[in-house]
Amino acid sequence: MKFIKDIFEKTHPLVQKGAKYHWLHSVHDGFFTLFFVQKNTSKSGTHIHDYIDLKRTMGMVVLALVPAILFGMYNTGFQHFKAIGELASTGFFEIFLFGLIKVVPVIVVSYVVGLGIEFVFAQIRGHEIQEGFLVSGMLIPLVMPIETPLWMIALATAFAVIIGKEVFGGTGMNIWNPALVARAFLFFAYPAQMSGNSVWVPLNETDKVIDGYSGATPMAEAAAGNINFSVSDAFFGFIPGSIGETSTLAILLGAVILIITGIGSWKIMVSTVAGGAVMGIILNIFAGDNVYMSLPFWQHLIIGGFAFGAVFMATDPVSGTQTEKGKWIYGFLIGLLAILIRVVNPAYPEGMMLAILLMNTFAPLIDHYVVAAHINRRLKRAKISAN
Amino acid sequence: MSETIKLRKGLNIKLKGSAKPELEPIAVPGTIALKPTDFPGLTPKLKVKADTLVKAGDALFYDKYHPEILFTAPIGGKVVSVNRGERRKILEVVIETDSKAGSVEFAKADPASLSGEAIRQELLKSGLWPFIKRRPYGIIASPADKPISIYISTFDTSPLAPDYSFVLKGRMDTFQTGVNALAKLTTGKVYLGVNNESPFSAIKNVVVNQFDGPHPAGNVGIQIHNTNPINKGDVVWTVNVQDVLIIGRLFETGKVDFTKIIALTGSEVENPKYYKTILGVPVSVFIDGKLKNSPYKQRIISGNVLTGAKIKTQGYIGFYDQQVSVIPEGDEYEFMGWADPGINKFTASKAFISKLFPKKEYELNANLHGGERAFVLSGQYEKLVPMDILPVHLIKAILVNDIDKMEQLGIYEVIEEDFALCEYACTSKVKVQEILRNGINTMIKELG
């Protein structure tokens, strides 16, 4: 360890202002602080500080994403071999390896492009590398269909980091969740390549698909009028979908980690699920002979990106509401809108992404009214005591 | 006895090195000092210069804007130096003590027989007035204030805090005298905040409120908020327990007696306990031969680890401080510290394993444990402030200098100590106390 520290300490003067390698300062600083918590001590204010910092917090979120990542890899292989009818004859590790080889490049592209841009911005602005992208860089691959071309991932990541975050001032300042900005960018910029049934299942040109296999997500099927997915498949995640979103179970494991460590807001998770369930029930009541509307409300919660969005996207503390009461309202509206958009929007059978982006936009407004109510209550108190 | 007010929000930080209930007297030190910097917002004007001989109770300096507020010598002797800092700001007025110097005689009387005005004059002349602080703002009370009440907290919940029922053992009568004097200064009542089974519950001429809860339940600001919250235009006075005692002694003896009991605490202290000494004592009397022989740097704090001031080994204890805390400086790199499971890492969050051992005591150092960032997480501060106040929004209102919002969000009700836990727990390492004091200074400047 001392060896690594010595390298960083020796190279430290070389990247200072005016030195030869100053353009590498943010990179040096980024890696130094990654490997070593710095020796800075309190100069004013409290003398002791909590051990938690943004690296720890973001690290915890990435840890919570691990079950979804691993399952996403397995499911990628699973869908492939299922499509070509070789599932029974393929071993577990072969399936996983296939997915691993497919998924890792997506993750690598996301991190390299995103962190590259972050380093450049940190250098230009002269501040430390901020950790927000550690999570965004993992979320971006997980919300993409596996067959998204890598150049599109790169483009979407660049768009998300620059337009979604850095123009607002970097981590902590953005108004939308960067990963969803990336997803929305692709959805609107390349609709032809990002929809249809072929993007969800990785197939080579030589692969022969078995008869009757469509590769459509359960939501697309339901929107088309066929509900034929199995509930257990949807819960465990053996369905087509974006890389990380299919397994409700893996996402629940992540949710447990986020709630136990207190890093994700359980209020938002609970209220989002409640909002989704309420809208599902409303739709059930008015379903008539519309198949998608009559999908049992609780099944909405285990298909598509609902669970993933509720646990990992809606809980983003920066783009969500900041007040505790606001969190209940914010989550509930996300759930409500997600299912409404999902079922009613004819163009695209998923609504989580748009619902969260929409509520990100309105989060400051919700907070504004919560704070206004708080101020009113305080003013009333003043009047009562004056009487 | 009123019913107990239960406070749920907050956090007790369990540190190693709390003071054992043992009291050791310290001989009168060679020098003592009064530091104008202990009083936020004060512009001091000197009354003495080097080589002036003073008795205990003679004025050393006064407040430029309230010349009647005097700051007097805690002990007799010779003024040896006036130490100044940048722009000739007065930092310390140092007195070489002389046991034969004697002290100024003030009126000796039972406060019950005195008028409020007489008590006010006695406190101003004797230099005991600065012990009275006012809310809003946490600054020295103005003699022209008409306080609606006076609050005294008889317990301290901050880390390693001294136990006042030990400190005041056997001196409750004098405390009562002090309370009686204060009671004459308000049209309202004196409120005493006590914790469970407190000997202070027996004090008369007061309203006793019992509190139960983690830090900051012992902060007087929290106690005011949860009983009679301050509204715009209200002024409430607050006094520390030991300072009430000093006031009581003035009326009992007619002399100023700044004797104070100070707790020496912290994980770097060999034998943490209480010392009987005097206000303005040099810190050297606490640290010479009393600290552990550690291979790393130590940080000496006048006050507690949340709100105290870092002082040099040749420095002096602050005017309002009741304890000295010594902790490791922690100016060392830690390899992959953020990824450590954290069995020895006390945390207000739940992101370290230490959370599973709630009874353990920890040795915490002064390292920041991370870089400063913009606000990212939400909901952290709210858990630590047992008040109907939105701390993050108040802090943000101060950062954008929005005076209306600061007022609406409750800046009159809080001072640094009430938000200190937020600064401790902040993931983004935001300097909450500094920001809050800036906001308070803005309010004083704009609204007076």
List the helices and strands and how they pair.
The complex is a heterodimer of chains A (387) and B (448).
Chain A: H1 2-11, H2 25-35, E1 36-37, H3 54-83, H4 92-125, H5 132-142, H6 150-162, H7 178-189, H8 191-194, H9 218-223, H10 231-236, H11 248-260, H12 266-285, H13 297-300, H14 306-313, H15 324-344, H16 352-386
Helix pairs in contact in A: 2-4, 3-4, 3-5, 3-11, 4-5, 4-6, 5-7, 6-7, 7-16, 11-14, 12-14, 12-15, 15-16
Chain B: E1 4-6, E2 20-25, E3 31-34, E4 44-46, E5 53-54, E6 59-63, E7 66-72, E8 77-84, E9 90-97, H1 116-126, E10 133-135, E11 139-140, E12 149-153, H2 164-167, H3 172-183, E13 189-194, E14 207-212, H4 220-225, E15 236-238, H5 241-253, E16 259-265, E17 273-278, H6 284-287, E18 298-302, E19 309-310, E20 323-328, E21 334-335, H7 391-399, H8 403-408, H9 416-425, H10 432-447
Parallel strand pairs in B: 1-14, 2-17, 12-13, 12-15, 13-14, 16-20
Antiparallel strand pairs in B: 3-9, 4-6, 5-8, 6-7, 8-9, 10-11, 10-15, 16-17, 18-19, 18-20
Helix pairs in contact in B: 3-5, 9-10
Quickly list its features.
heterodimer, A: 387 residues, mainly alpha, Ammonium transporter fold, 16 helices, 61% helix, 1% strand, globular, B: 448 residues, alpha/beta, Ribosomal Protein L25, Chain P, 3 domains, seven-stranded mixed β-sheet, six-stranded mixed β-sheet, 21 strands, 22% strand
Account of the protein in words:
- The complex is a heterodimer of chains A (387) and B (448).
- With 387 residues, chain A is mainly α.
- Chain A folds into 2 domains: 2-35, no CATH class; 56-202 and 216-373, Ammonium transporter fold (Orthogonal Bundle).
- Helices cover 61% and strands 1% of the residues of chain A.
- Chain A contains 16 helices and 1 strand.
- Chain A has helices spanning 2-11, 25-35, 54-83, 92-125, 132-142, 150-162, 178-189, 191-194, 218-223, 231-236, 248-260, 266-285, 297-300, 306-313, 324-344, 352-386; one strand at residues 36-37.
- By secondary structure, chain B is of the alpha/beta class.
- Chain B has 3 domains: 4-253, no CATH class; 259-356, Ribosomal Protein L25, Chain P (Beta Barrel), CATH 2.40.240; 381-447, no CATH class.
- Chain B contains 10 helices and 21 strands.
- Chain B has helices spanning 116-126, 164-167, 172-183, 220-225, 241-253, 284-287, 391-399, 403-408, 416-425, 432-447; strands at residues 4-6, 20-25, 31-34, 44-46, 53-54, 59-63, 66-72, 77-84, 90-97, 133-135, 139-140, 149-153, 189-194, 207-212, 236-238, 259-265, 273-278, 298-302, 309-310, 323-328, 334-335.
- In chain B, the strands form 4 sheets. A 7-stranded mixed β-sheet of chain B has the order 1-14-13-12-15-10-11. A 6-stranded mixed β-sheet of chain B has the order 2-17-16-20-18-19, with no helix packed on it.
- In chain B, strand 10 (133-135) and strand 11 (139-140) form a beta hairpin.
- In chain B, helix 3 (172-183) crosses helix 5 (241-253) and helix 9 runs antiparallel to helix 10.
- Strand 1 (36-37) of chain A pairs antiparallel with strand 21 (334-335) of chain B, so a sheet runs across the interface.
